[in-house]
Write a structure and sequence with these properties.
The chain is of the alpha+beta class and about 190 residues long. The protein is about 35% helix and about 20% strand. Strands 2-1-3 form a 3-stranded antiparallel β-sheet, covered by helices on one side. A 3-stranded antiparallel β-sheet has the order 4-5-6, with helices on one face. A hairpin with a 4-residue loop joins β5 and β6. It is elongated.
Length: about 190
């Protein structure tokens, strides 16, 4: 007798961990670990059950098919990740603006890198070449920024990236500050 494709999928599929203990409803979606088990239903379906360490220690019946310790990480929600992107964009925009207004020609690799990064994040758009320089437009501000067109092989991107990351931390908006975010990819 040939097996149906869904039959195989049904016993190999294990649901994602629950966010609360099966017995006491304590939150499990915090940093740390918690026990998880697979029990078989009367129809031999695999059912996942998650427990907090306290309830697991009090359990007297150990009639499960399989057991493991689930590692949990308190990951940011989708909304928090969008906020983090907005803060990132704002910090990178502030850094770019400060470096560009300094007029320091030694910063050409950082400006080249930042302009392309901000273009990737949809804060700036490339508007063409002007006088041998790359022209980037900030759509919201309707301002154009000219950046030296550098040969890619002349840039040590790893060191420029590390410099930009370190410098951008100084431009992250304060929590109590309510800046208008730069136009671009917020999520």
């Amino acid at each position: 007798m040939a097996r149906l494709p869904n039959e195989r999928d049904s016993y190999l599929h294990v649901t994602r961990p629950r966010n609360a203990c099966l017995l006491c409803s304590a939150p499990l979606n915090v940093d740390g670990r918690h026990p998880s088990v697979i029990v078989l239903s009367d129809k031999e379906e695999a059912i996942r059950q998650d427990f907090c360490p306290t309830c697991w220690g009090r359990m007297t019946e150990k009639g499960y098919f399989s057991f493991w310790v689930t590692k949990r990480v308190n990951a940011p929600s989708a909304e928090q990740r969008r906020l983090a992107r907005g803060e990132r964009n704002e910090a990178l925009w502030r850094l770019f603006s400060a470096l560009h207004s300094s007029g320091n020609s030694d910063l050409a690799p950082q400006l080249f890198f930042l302009a392309h990064l901000l273009m990737r994040y949809k804060v700036l758009t490339f508007s063409g070449l002007r006088d041998g320089k790359l022209a980037f437009l900030h759509p919201k501000l309707e301002e154009t920024y000219l950046i030296d067109d550098l040969p890619i092989e002349s840039i040590d991107f790893l060191s420029v990236k590390n410099e930009v990351e370190a410098a951008a931390l100084a431009y992250v908006p304060d929590a109590d500050e309510d800046p208008e975010p730069p136009e671009g990819n917020q999520g």
